[in-house]
Amino acid sequence: NAGVTQTPKFRVLKTGQSMTLLCAQDMNHEYMYWYRQDPGMGLRLIHYSVGEGTTAKGEVPDGYNVSRLKKQNFLLGLESAAPSQTSVYFCASSYSRLAVIADFEQFFGPGTRLTVL
Amino acid sequence: DQQVKQNSPSLSVQEGRISILNCDYTNSMFDYFLWYKKYPAEGPTFLISISSIKDKNEDGRFTVFLNKSAKHLSLHIVPSQPGDSAVYFCAASALGTYKYIFGTGTRLKVLA
Lengths: 117, 112
Description:
heterodimer, A: mainly beta, four-stranded antiparallel sheet, 0% helix, B: mainly beta, six-stranded mixed sheet, globular
């Protein structure tokens, strides 16, 4: 049981380049999330998904796109990277809050450190 | 508008003593609260949670207290250990919104 995995772990991009971050979970969770963490800012939600084929905007969606074609995967795309997108990106997943279970915590991946020059 | 606030960026505590981490929120619709611990170069890991129908939840050395009228929650760690040194995030969720709102984190350092 791998939990939540993210690829790649590190990446350096030049301004204007594009890339896709992959998140995979093997816990059959309905919900998946992409966050970015910046110093002094905590975790800010970029986009999220409440099920296969659905996506929604979070707090800081500009400059990012996402897709959830399969329940276990959630992709985050940067079409034209900018230095302001230098950050650590975390993917997370969780059960639906409508599920009859005790805890609704999010499980996080190890993060992707992205630098845009 | 910061809906979840952790006003202390850092905290130092002696080993064996109590660590108290605080979190305030502004949205009265939040009904579920969580604490996460984060070590450098790792993703956050879930520590403990509390539903708004309770005012206390314990798990070993960790206890979370919720004061709904004050919109305040706190995490108590007793006794504190050097391995507890990490960044702690509180998060809040409202049923039906699907989202978790995180605070900015408090860096705890437990001194041996």
